[in-house]
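> Could you send the Pectinesterase prediction when you get a chance?

Sure thing. Input:
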Amino acid sequence: MASLGLSPAGAQAPCPYPSSAPVIIRFLLVLLCASFAAAAANGSCTWQGWKDAPGDASQWHIRVDPSGQSGTFTTVQSAIDAVPENNNHWFCIYVKEGTYREKVQIPKNKPFIILKGRGKRNTEIVWDDHETVAQSPTFTSSADNIVVKSISFRNSYNNPVNENPKVPAAAAMIRGDKSYFYRVGFSGLQDTLWDVEGRHYFKRCTIQGAVDFIFGGGQSIYEGCAISVLGNALPGLSGFITAQGRENEQDTDGFVFKNCNVFGSGSAKLGRPWRGYARVLFYHSNFTDVVDPKGWDAWSFVGREYQLTFVEYGCYGPGADTSKRVSWERKLDDSSVQQMTSLSYVDSEGWIDRTPF
Ligand SMILES: *[C@@H]1O[C@H](CO)[C@@H](O)[C@H](O)[C@H]1NC(C)=O
Ligand SMILES: *[C@@H]1O[C@H](CO)[C@@H](O)[C@H](O)[C@H]1NC(C)=O
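Output:
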């Protein structure tokens, strides 16, 4: 177990605002701190520490190593617990390779965490809760401004496919705003990734499951992701990749899959609506014949299909033949497609560029 001297006071140290100072000095300090924060944001999170980050990086850097090497934590959660509440600069939590059998939660009051592993095949966090979908996630991220890289989350209750009853059991639940996942794996069977709400960018991730395995009301772009269907778990039935949760016509949420690969065993529809205005766009994605020729299902919104926005645009591969699709699949005009597939759909203010990378 580590002793890192991570005190809330230490965390605040880089940006002191002495209230006794004259206004102009305080103003200059604020500017200085703002530029300091911007500079720090360009560092990169490594096992050794922050690369190219100014200041006392030891305060902002935590290592997790299951062997308990000195100066490290042995669990991911204990490392997150060591981050001060309401911290306002990036913390690098570097997680050594290994299988971590624990549930991990980033609470709402711990923003600015970068959780980085040594590759999604090497650093894996596994648990098997399945009482309710809300109780089940192996990883729950509730804070804004979170970056996760090169790590995998699995709910092992039904993954790998086994003899257990098939129930909703999430690998991850993401409910903060401004969250970026790069080369992250999510493995489960039903309800694998609960993309609850907020703006999220998933790049080069792998998401595996069979039923509603990407679901929720997030406003998200999945770019260059592998969507892996475990259809052999449902002999004779077709699964569902998405169950999007847009509730009103004015809501801006929706799932966009851009340049993704959809493959796997058995068969799955691209989605069904969890809520009445569900919106899902598959754009320039590669479908094997794992995609059910009907494409989509109206679930409990039969008769209100006109409310749904389920779209394919420029997809290719054997599963992309739309001749047998449901008649109500939507066509979007080019400018709406352009608006939803541009990074500004999830990032109009540049938060992705400012994350440490
Ligand atoms: C950080 O990155 C941004 C965007 O790439 C760049 O404009 C800025 O100059 C960089 N800041 C530092 C301190 O390197
Ligand atoms: C499309 O997917 C198939 C099957 O996974 C793969 O063999 C093929 O190379 C992919 N095509 C492109 C252009 O990526």
